[in-house]
Write a structure and sequence with these properties.
The complex is a heterodimer. Chain A is mostly beta strands. Chain A has helices at residues 2-10, 71-74, 148-152, and strands spanning 16-24, 27-32, 36-41, 55-61, 64-70, 87-93, 97-103, 105-113, 117-118, 132-138, 141-146. Chain B is of the alpha+beta class. Chain B contains 24 helices and 22 strands. Chain B starts with 6 loop residues before the first helix and ends with a helix. In chain B, 45% of the residues lie in helices and 21% in strands. The chains are: A mainly beta, B alpha+beta.
Chain lengths: 156, 709
């Protein structure tokens, strides 16, 4: 075990992943920093008619029109309540392009070694687990790591 | 030196020449005696050969060379144009096209020698002129003649410094020859420096360039008129060098002569020298082409020759009018750069709109500020228009290949048909023109294969034996409409319905309830084809659904009208511009929406009591027209803030010949808006065609009037 840890420490920095820790309700979630383009304050969202509930609408980000979705509604939590600490995190995804997601609060950036991330087993009973790709153990407690592709995936 | 930097130009020009050849050979088929066409074909083939040679594509050069020989024989009246000859020529063009594709993909022409084609070409000639080599000097004749024509060029005026002179005398001692050359570039040539470079390269294969006038640096920077002169040292014969240089395309002529060291004075350029060299040139050319006098295909040559002894330094002799379309002065620009420019213009317009709303908000806008804003507005509007125009190209480039395609189809399908095109000059955004080709091609094939009946059936039905396919393009407001029409059989809705039931696309009950129009629309379903026999032309069932989705991806639509026994019309409607439009801003509840001005017919103020019910749908009557009403607040799920007793504000929009009245709460005004896509992520909402950023930074959605009707 000891020798293992030593080997771990010798590994290059590339073996760690950085996450931005956000809050939705009481729970902490982590978003892989490589997908994050920008974090902006809450602003007026223009509603788009006839789309799924979780799609809140579009915003203007420096001249670009960007769709914004609510993770809360998608995950079946209570609706978002806009507060001072509400933020829109702009994600850049390969498939869906640029998308904003609403979060209650942005807390910090954590760096997790990959061996401190535990995969979660797929559990058909717990719907929310489908949106997670793992759980990270940091000094500040447990962080549920969001699987962005399934969060953002269009519900059929 | 490396020619790869000229590869792009080469490919583009080859395409143009091939397209030109296609068109010309088609018209030659119609009118085999037309001398202008034959000359034009000869010219294009000759340029192609030269270009391929310079770029080192030997196979392409060989093939074009043999084609050129055939044309040359035709031009001299030795052989007549026959149908099988046209077929062979078309096959040659296809082969050239293949070379071109190979080169584009791998910058290599591939290994297909097309020996069979070359043999057939030679057979064509063999019939009349005996051996192929006979036509060789004929092909060269015009070149050499032109060389003689512009003799007396500037090389005699070149002054040499001491070291250059010593190089020359050294070379002569070694038994090499010194030549002076004057090269004239065509007036229409766009990249003179590139052409000059190719000439340099061609000459350097056999010779050494000692000095050039203007200097090579100036030539590289395009600091020369149409002529440049060279003094070279070579072991090769003069005519070989002339030929090599003359083979570069867009070079009008190359003249030259052997120079004696005494000729090249270090001091004053003398008239007598010019005369001397001129004499030498005519002598030289006369030697190389003894047959020249006998064949004078170019009538302009003697005239030019007469003018030749003019002073060496004089500017280019005005080119005599040639039967060749005038080439516009153009610059090739990467489309990405234009996109960037377009985006910047969009930003500017948004900034201008912000300024307008900021000045309105502050309330104390002075006269001066308003004037400046108006000025800014007119500048941005014309800037936008010019950028849009830059991106617009005629659809000609795309539709030009269709006559040839229809000709091939005719042979393949064994039906008689004729394609009539109109409106080729209609302009569309470049990206749209590039992508519209495939869907159009498919519709044409569809008409040819499924639409038109065979000649026998047509005769029986009392129609002319030759079927007609029409391709018409025209502008209609903010749209461009392209129609593909045929006078064939039309769509057999019963057959379509049965097929759909058979394929399980619909149930028999559904089929019963469907209107004719709905049945026709089934054709656009994936995996649907009614052709009884699957040919390689169409009928694989991968056509119409692709057509539809491709056109929709260009924000266009496709419609079909058909009458059994009389033919079908496929109508493609495409937006003229994709980026910035004039729009009417309206308010519904608390939300703002934009409606494209192009689709708006009128705006009406309607009393609530004037709204009538027809089949439980609200309509209004307007100047004898009954127009269905669409209450936008209901469709968009917004509570209206207007009292139901108040007058209705109705925006009447049109789509083709259909009208509809959109009920809004309030009108805000007309505004220039920049269309931004909502992105793939929000694609479910069909009634919204995009979004725009308003002056205050808010996003407003653009209503797609077409999908509302």
């Amino acid at each position: 075990m000891n020798s293992m840890n030593e080997v771990e420490e010798l590994r290059p920095v590339g073996e760690t992943t950085q996450f931005i820790v956000i809050k939705l309700g009481d729970e902490q979630y982590g978003i892989d920093i490589k997908y994050i383009d920008n974090i902006v304050r809450m602003q007026h969202i223009t509603r788009v008619p006839k789309v799924d509930d979780y799609l809140k609408g579009v915003i203007n980000l420096r001249g670009e029109v960007i769709p914004v979705m609510s993770i809360r509604i998608k995950m079946g939590l209570e609706r978002d309540v806009e507060t001072k600490s509400s933020r829109i995190i702009i994600l850049k995804l390969e498939q869906q392009g640029t998308i904003g997601v609403i979060v209650d609060e942005v807390r910090e950036v954590v760096t997790l070694e990959n061996d401190r991330i535990e995969k979660v087993a797929y559990d058909s009973k717990d719907e929310n687990a489908n949106f997670l790709c793992g759980v990270g153990k940091s000094d500040g407690g447990l962080i549920s790591l969001l699987d962005l592709n399934s969060v953002v995936l269009e519900s059929v | 030196m490396d020619v790869s930097q000229y590869l792009e130009i080469f490919l583009d020009e080859t395409n143009e020449h091939l397209q030109n050849l296609n068109t010309q050979i088609l018209s030659l088929e119609q009118d085999p005696e037309n001398m202008d066409t034959i000359n034009e074909i000869f010219r294009a083939a000759h340029s192609l050969k030269g270009m391929a040679g310079t770029m080192g594509y030997k196979r392409m050069q060989t093939l074009t060379h043999d084609m050129e020989n055939v044309f040359s024989e035709v031009r001299n009246g030795n052989i007549k144009v026959k149908a099988d000859m046209i077929d062979v020529l078309f096959q040659c063009l296809d082969a050239l096209e293949e070379y071109n594709t190979n080169i584009r993909e791998s910058s290599d022409e591939g290994t297909n020698d097309n020996g069979a084609l070359i043999k057939r070409l030679n057979d064509i000639m063999g019939g009349d002129s005996g051996e192929t080599s006979a036509s060789e000097p004929q092909a060269q004749a015009p070149q050499a003649q032109q060389a003689a024509a512009a003799a007396g060029g500037g090389f005699a005026g070149i002054k040499l410094n001491e070291s250059q002179q010593s190089v020359l005398s050294e070379a002569i001692k070694q038994g090499k020859s010194v030549y002076g050359l004057t090269v004239k570039v065509q007036e229409s040539c766009i990249l003179k420096a590139a052409r000059a470079f190719l000439v340099f390269k061609a000459i350097e294969e056999t010779s050494e360039i000692i000095v050039s006038d203007p200097s090579s640096q100036d030539i590289e920077d395009e600091k020369f008129d149409l002529h440049f002169s060279l003094v070279i040292v070579s072991e090769a014969a003069l005519d070989q060098v002339l030929k090599a240089a003359g083979a570069v395309s867009e070079i009008e002529d190359v003249s030259g002569s052997v120079m004696n060291l005494e000729d090249v004075g270090t001091a004053e350029p003398e008239e007598s020298h010019a005369a001397e060299t001129t004499g030498a040139v005519s002598e030289a050319t006369a030697e190389t082409t003894p047959a020249e006098a006998a064949q004078t295909p170019s009538e302009t040559a003697p005239a030019e020759a007469a003018q030749a002894p003019a002073p060496a330094a004089a500017p280019a002799v005005k080119k005599p009018p040639v039967n060749k379309p005038v080439v516009n002065r153009t610059v090739r620009v990467d489309i990405e750069k234009l996109d960037t420019l377009m985006n910047l213009v969009s930003e500017l317009i948004i900034a201008k709109n912000s300024l307008v709303s900021a000045s309105a908000m502050s309330g104390n806008s002075s006269q001066a500020v308003n004037e400046q804003i108006e000025y800014l507005e007119s500048v941005t509007t014309s800037l936008h228009e010019s950028v849009m125009k830059v991106r617009m190209v005629p659809i000609e480039s795309t539709v030009n290949k269709f006559p040839r395609m229809v000709r091939d189809l005719q042979k393949k399908l064994g039906k008689k048909m004729e394609l009539y095109m109109s409106g080729e000059e209609t302009e569309l955004d470049r990206t749209v023109v590039d992508q519209i080709g495939d869907p159009l091609m498919h519709l044409l094939r569809n008409s040819a294969d499924h639409g038109l009946e065979s000649a026998a059936v047509r005769k029986e039905r009392g129609k002319p034996e030759v079927g007609s396919i029409f391709l018409d393009a025209y502008q209609d407001g903010n749209n461009v409409v392209i129609e593909v029409r045929d006078d064939g059989n039309g769509i057999d809705t019963k057959a379509v319905k049965n097929k759909a039931i058979e394929r399980g696309v619909i149930t028999p009950e559904q089929g019963e309830a469907m209107s004719e129009k709905e049945i026709i629309n089934l054709l656009f379903n994936a995996g649907f084809s009614t052709a009884k026999v699957v040919s390689d032309v169409s009928g694989r069932g991968v056509g119409l659904d692709v057509v539809k989705s491709m056109i929709e991806s260009l924000s266009g639509e496709v419609e079909v009208k058909s009458k059994l026994g009389e033919g079908s019309t496929w109508t493609i409607r495409l937006p003229l511009t994709l980026a910035i439009i004039q729009a009417l801003m309206v308010e519904i509840g608390e939300e703002k929406y934009a409606i494209a001005l192009g689709s708006i017919q009128t705006i009406e103020d309607i009393l609530p009591s004037d709204v009538k019910l027809v089949q439980a749908k609200e309509v209004i009557q307007l100047r004898d027209l009954v127009i269905p009403l669409i209450r936008l607040n209901e469709i968009l799920d917004i509570p209206s803030k207007k009292d139901p007793e108040e007058n209705l504000v109705v925006v009447v929009v049109k789509k083709g010949d259909k009208l509809a009245g959109l009920v809004v709460d309030e009108l805000i005004g007309q505004q220039e808006i920049v269309i931004k896509s909502l992105g793939k992520y929000i694609s479910k909402c069909k009634i919204i065609s995009g979004a725009t950023v308003l002056g205050d930074g808010e996003v407003a959605l653009i209503l797609d009037a077409n999908s509302l009707i």
